[in-house]
Specification:
The chain is mainly alpha-helical. The protein has helices at 6-21, 28-35, 39-51, 76-83, 106-123, 127-130; strands spanning 55-58, 64-67.
């Protein structure tokens, strides 16, 4: 099981690149070689971040993307939410569908506590921390 998918990995790399570049806008072409991902795939990720309000898209000559927020306000948890959906370790380990003991299952409650600590840690990691 991977905790973070490749979209989150590439998004974090791209945002770190943008924060380090310290330019008004950064194009996908400028990032693709450094980040190690193809331009179309990276563009899709950047567009999702734009839709979520993490980036601003600038069209035309000299266009590209710019951070919509300061790096210290963009969290890894935010990227996970946009690109993966809610972080859920497990609903039920014994069956594919939720069982009748879902509310009283001790294992599920233990895993939920681990999940809460994990989410708390991920919420504390910002793009600024990764620069």
């Amino acid at each position: 099981m991977k905790l973070l998918n490749r979209d989150v990995d590439y998004a974090a790399r791209a945002l770190v690149f943008m924060a380090r570049a310290n330019k008004p806008t950064v194009s996908v072409a400028q990032m693709e070689g450094t980040i190690g991902v193809t331009r179309p795939f990276l563009r899709k990720i950047m567009q999702k971040l734009h839709k979520a309000g993490i980036l601003v898209a600038v069209k035309g000559k000299g266009g590209g993307f710019a951070l919509a927020r300061r790096p210290e306000t963009i969290t890894l948890a935010g990227l996970v939410a946009v690109l993966q959906g809610p972080l859920k370790l497990n609903d039920c380990v014994f069956r594919k569908k939720i069982c009748q003991n879902h509310g009283a299952c001790l294992l599920r409650h233990k895993i939920a506590a681990v999940e809460a600590r994990l989410i708390s840690e991920i919420e504390g990691i910002t793009i600024k921390d990764l620069i």
